[in-house]
Design goal:
15% strand; alpha/beta
Length: 219
């Protein structure tokens, strides 16, 4: 069965307020990735193919999971995250909507940003909503057509868009799912003759013990 396991990257620099500063794993993010790799080894999980985006946090997470036991990874820019910080700055300048300063503000902000982006109300956005949706769909469709199980390390926004496409979600529902996605979490897609099916969401088996509960993170 040639299913895809999507992995959100480990915790990045959560104090950042721009794309470049955010794009590196924290010490906790490295630990999350190593624990996930240990879980795969313990359970005998094998992947014939490995993919990740070209962002530093994607590459580092894949390195932390299993640098020696995975197939040579393919870096694909189509698996990169949406440019949240860039669009948040544009939305603030164009619509007066402040960039969030904490998680509670982020919960309110993300649905607004996605809706403005979808409606074309963020001028000079790094890419269009349609382009993002298309590249996510194309990349996952191609990976699903390959032989053998695949692991794909990417970001929460891309996983959210994948779920929107597969489950035909409205933007508000997509935003709520994105907000729930935890660092280093697993999400499984199974190809069917009628299309792609989502069979697992936000699983954290490598952190599901009392002594590792502290290592769960969203940002």
């Amino acid at each position: 069965m040639s299913f895809i396991t999507l992995v959100r990257h480990g915790q990045a620099n959560s104090s950042a307020r721009d794309e470049d500063s955010y794009d590196r794993l924290s010490d906790l993010g490295w630990q999350q990735a190593r624990w996930l790799g240990g879980y795969f080894q313990q359970t005998g999980e094998k992947f014939a193919r490995a993919y990740c985006g070209t962002l530093r946090r994607h590459v580092e997470t894949l390195e932390g999971i299993a640098p020696d036991s995975l197939a040579a990874p393919v870096q694909d820019a189509r698996l990169n995250e949406l440019a949240y910080f860039d669009m948040a700055q544009l939305m603030q300048a164009q619509h007066g909507i402040a960039i969030p300063g904490d998680r509670e503000e982020f919960i309110q902000h993300l649905p607004q940003l996605l809706a403005h982006w979808r409606d074309g109300d963020i001028q000079n956005a790094p890419e269009s909503w349609t382009s993002f949706e298309s590249r996510v769909t194309d990349a996952l469709t191609e990976i699903a057509a390959g032989e053998g199980r695949a692991i794909v390390v990417t970001s929460g926004g891309l996983i959210g868009m994948a779920m929107r496409v597969i489950l035909e979600l409205e933007v508000k529902a997509m935003a709520h799912l994105c907000l729930a996605i935890e660092n280093s979490s697993l999400h499984r897609i199974q190809p069917l003759s009628t299309g792609l099916a989502m069979t697992q969401f936000n699983s954290l088996p490598h952190l599901d013990t009392p002594e590792r509960q502290h290592a769960r993170s969203h940002l």
